[in-house]
């Protein structure tokens, strides 16, 4: 079925006059007549009949009109949706570490929307640990993820966009709570709350202890840094965590780590093997253009 013929049919059905419908369609009347004749031959039934000086639908034409209008409406909606996407509008699906959802990512999203007030852009925000986020990116659930550096074998594109300072946190009544700075080796005698191995920062903390030849006493493991902070505040042990403003609100002590000095790099990650929608590409460039201003939070 010729798509143009469908539009001709719907127009004629509403105008009910060949000459007027042809003028509205910017075609000749013979062209319109030919199109309708061809449709009726293909369908095997008459769609129109004469009614005085007008042309009206047969009962078969009325039945087909509902189908044609529904088809054209769905098609037009699809075309408009794709055209909006081509203009840089649409949905941007972000995956992020929970700590980045406190300030960093909301600030980026708000800044992007402020810079592009004429674009109809929406965001979705999903939090998780690095491995979960990378799995979601591979499964095409996210357009971009902000997390620790992905393994090279995944062949993702990763750009460093932020650094986080790592600190030691201890309960207020901990033997180390009187200190303001510390060498990580001094934590060896004390139980610690660690990130689970699925967390991207776990390898960073493991490397820090390996660097000084210490095997930490791991008492508890969990995947979220906020949960670790809460456990430390309640006396479950000490912990190495990224610095975040939330720590200032909890009943614990924050110590700067003198040695080994370490910062955690955070990356914006995407899969170049998958087509990147224009709105996502524009947001990614927005982040890249401002990334030198996004360097990490300080204590």
Automatic annotation (TrEMBL):
Pfam short name (any one): HTH_1
Residue ranges occupied by any HTH lysR-type domain in the UniProt entry: 1-58
Swiss-Prot/TrEMBL keywords: DNA-binding, Transcription, Transcription regulation
Coiled coil: none
Annotated signal sequence range: none
Family, as annotated: Belongs to the LysR transcriptional regulatory family.
Name of the protein: LysR family transcriptional regulator
């Amino acid at each position: 079925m010729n798509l143009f013929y469908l539009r001709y049919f719907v127009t004629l059905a509403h105008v009910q006059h060949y000459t007027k419908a042809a003028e509205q369609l910017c075609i000749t009347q013979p062209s319109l007549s030919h199109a309708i004749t061809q449709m009726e031959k293909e369908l095997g039934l008459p769609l129109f009949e004469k009614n005085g000086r007008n042309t009206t639908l047969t009962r078969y034409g009325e039945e087909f009109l509902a189908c044609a209008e529904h088809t054209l409406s769905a098609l037009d909606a699809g075309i408009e949706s794709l055209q909006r996407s081509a203009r840089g509008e649409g949905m941007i699906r972000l995956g992020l570490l929970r700590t980045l959802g406190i300030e960093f990512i909301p600030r980026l999203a708000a800044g992007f929307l402020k810079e592009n007030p004429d674009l109809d852009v929406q965001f979705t925000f999903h939090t998780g640990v690095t491995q979960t986020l990378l799995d979601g990116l591979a499964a095409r659930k996210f357009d971009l993820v902000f997390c620790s550096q992905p393994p090279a074998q995944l062949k993702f594109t990763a750009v460093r966009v932020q650094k986080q300072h790592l600190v030691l946190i201890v309960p207020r009544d901990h033997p180390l709570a009187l200190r303001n700075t510390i060498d990580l080796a001094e934590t060896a005698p004390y139980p610690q709350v660690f990130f689970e191995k699925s967390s991207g920062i776990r390898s960073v903390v493991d490397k820090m202890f390996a660097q000084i030849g210490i095997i930490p006493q791991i008492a508890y493991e969990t995947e979220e840094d906020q949960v670790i902070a809460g456990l430390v505040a309640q006396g479950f042990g000490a912990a190495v965590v990224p610095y975040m403003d939330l720590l200032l609100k909890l009943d614990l002590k924050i110590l700067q780590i003198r040695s080994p000095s370490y910062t955690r790099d955070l990356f914006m990650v995407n899969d170049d093997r998958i087509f990147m929608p224009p709105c996502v590409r524009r947001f990614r460039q927005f982040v890249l253009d401002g990334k030198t201003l996004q360097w990490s939070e300080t204590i």
